[in-house]
Amino acid sequence: MPYLAKMLIYPIKSLDGVEVEQRRVLASGALENDREFAIFDENSQVVNGKRHSSIHKLRSPTAGRSPSHFSIPHRTISLQLPGQASKHIFHLDKERQALTTVLSDFFGFAVTLQQNSLVGFPDDLESTGPTVISTATLQEVASWFPGVTVEEMRRRMRANLEIDGVPAFWEDQLFTASGDMVAFRIGDVQFLGVNPCQRCIVPTRDSLSGDAYPSFQKIFIQKRQATLPEWVASSRFNHFYRLSINTKLPKSEAGKIIRTGDKVEILTSDA
Question: For 142-161, how does the pLDDT look when each residue is reduced to its tens digit (9 = 90+)?
Fold first, then answer.
């Protein structure tokens, strides 16, 4: 039986995720606190892993630790910068200027931390709902790359909702060849599957060091095409560097709560 096994939100875009057990759906369709903040440079360009590989090094020096730690209830972020023994802890609301000063020093140029509590800062401005992937998909894709663990692949793909109890690429049912959205439900919350998510350069790099995996994109494309289930709407793949599903949510779902353990059910393809 498909169920929601993990839920991850990313309070500051391009920094680490936080695993949560429940989350409220915003009117925009986003999960509360997901990509609520983003770092911007003086040209109003977002500072992210696509443009700045150094962002991976905002991390704790302890092997295996994630780069930063968020406390959602306390609204704090803890960062340990390269070459520094002590941690920096900042309140995201009360100490934002101090945080941006440290981040500016780290990047070597002035940055600001902007907030959008209504929509967040999604990559896809048309599909602002959470991204969906299955645990089996992460396991399968990790197997394509010797030395890359499932947890590491999870950090690279940065999906919000992880479905278990299903085979690899189960989530590819959540879009159609015609472009119609697919209605599905997680617990009491209805979603609309839109399209397979186009990946960027970020998954090609180690999530903690920023080091590139040799030929990652080439291997991914070859394996993704070779393992694409026969029933998948392959016409939606103008290339095969796509994984996880972008979603929208009907306005009626605003304020509802989604929880790990919730049952997942595909309703209809006539959205």
Answer: 999 999 999 999 999 999 99
